[in-house]
Amino acid sequence: MFNRRHIPLALAAATAALALAPAASPAPIPATGVVTNVVDGDTLKVRVAGVVRTVDLAGIDAPELRGGECFAKAAHRRLRASVAIGGTVRFAFAGRRPGSRAKRFAALVRVDGTLLNRRMVIGGFARTDGADLFAQGAVLVAAEVAAQNAARGLWGVCEGFTPAGGDAAGAPAIPATPGAPAIPATPASPSDAQLRDLFNRLLKGKAILRETSDAFSLTQRKINFCSDGSYREVVNTVFSTSGGATLNTTDGTWTIIRTGATAQFSGAIITLDAPGTADDRTIEIDQLADGSLLLDGRPATPDTNSECA
Is the pLDDT of residue 183 over 50? Predict the structure, then answer.
C-alpha cells in the first residue's frame, strides 16, 4: 500500500522523529488468529473468534499488487512464505486505519515469535509508514535503514528508491548540524560475490539450528545445507502439556538469491525449493559482527550436519 510521497530516512533523523512522536495509544491487546488468506505484502485475512478480519501489518507499507507496482509480487510471495494458511499468528492491536471498517485493523504480527512487520522491512519487501506511531517503531526504522544501505529488495531494483541519506525524488540529504563531530567514512561494503562466497563456506555441508518455545511446546528447526545444493529441513516439536511430539521433514534445493551487508551484519536471502510445493520459500540468514547467527531474525546456532556432506 505505497503512499506516493517518500521521506528521507537517515537513521539519526528517524530516531529523532521517534523521540519526538506523540505518546502511543493505550497498550496493545495480545490476541491470536488463524490465517485464511494473504492479500498482498502487508495485509492478511485472519479468523479471530470466528470472524474473518483484515489485518494490516502496522508501521509498514508494501507495493500494491493492484497497481502493478515494482516488487509487489515479490513482497506478496515473501509474506505468503512467512505464514501458513490455516496457521496461527499472534498479534498486538495497533489501531484501525482512518475510515476503515470495523473488521479491519493494524497490528504487530508474529509467527513463532518472529515479527513479520520487521521481516518484510529488513528484507526490502516493504518500507516503513508511520512506524513512529506504533510499538517496535524504532526496530522497524533500523531495519529499513539496514535494507536501504544493503540495497535489498525494492531498494536495489525499483526506480526511485535510493539508500538512506537522500530523497529518491531528488531532495538533498539532511545537512549535518553545525558544530557536530564529523561522521567517519563508512568502510567499503563487501561485494555480492564476496558475500556469496562467505555464505557458501558458512553453510555448505553444515547445518543451522533454531529453537523456539512457548508455554505449550518446544520446537527445534534444523536446516541441513548439502554441498550439492540440496537441503533437508527437520522440524521437531515437543508438546509439554500432552508429552506428544511431531516430526516433519522436507527435502529440496537451496539457492542464495541476494546478499547484503552493513557494519553490523552480513545477510543472505535463500530460497528453499521443495518439489511438489506451489511456491519457493525464502529464509534470511544473518551473521552479526560478533560471529553469531540469526535465522529469520531470531538467534540460531551452527550444528552438525547429519544428513548430507
Answer: no
Residue of 88, 99, 98, 97 whose CA lies nearest to 48? 88
For residue 87, the domain's CATH number is 2.40.50.90
264 within 8 A of 289, measured Cβ to Cβ: yes
In a domain, 184, yes or no: no
pLDDT attached to residue 49? 85
Q: How far apart are CA 282 and CA 256, in angstroms?
A: 10
Tell whether 111 is covered by a domain: yes
Single residue among 95, 130, 157 that ends a domain in this structure: 157
pLDDT at 104: 83
- What is the model's pTM? 0.48
- How many angstroms separate the Cα of 299 from the Cα of each of 202, 259, 286, 294, 296? 16, 19, 9, 4, 8
3-state secondary structure the chain: CCCCCCCCCCHHHHHHHHHHCCCCCCCCCEEEEEEEEEEECCEEEEEECCEEEEEEECCEECCCCCCCCCCHHHHHHHHHHHCCCCCEEEEEECCCCCCCCCCEEEEEEEECCEEHHHHHHHCCCCEECCHHHCCCHHHHHHHHHHHHHCCCCHHHHCCCCCCCCCCCCCCCCCCCCCCCCCCCCCCCCCCHHHHHHHHHHHHCCEEEEEEEECCCEEEEEEEEECCCCEEEEEEEEEECCCCCEEEEEEEEEEEEEEEEECCCEEEEEEEEECCCCCCCEEEEEEEECCCCEEECCEEEEEECCCCCC
Q: Say if residue 225 is in the same domain as residue 296.
A: yes
Give the domain-ending residue among 114, 142, 157: 157
Length of the chain in terms of residues written: 309
- Print the domain residue range for 220: 192-303
Average pLDDT of span 133-140: 73
**Residue 59: pLDDT above 80?**
yes
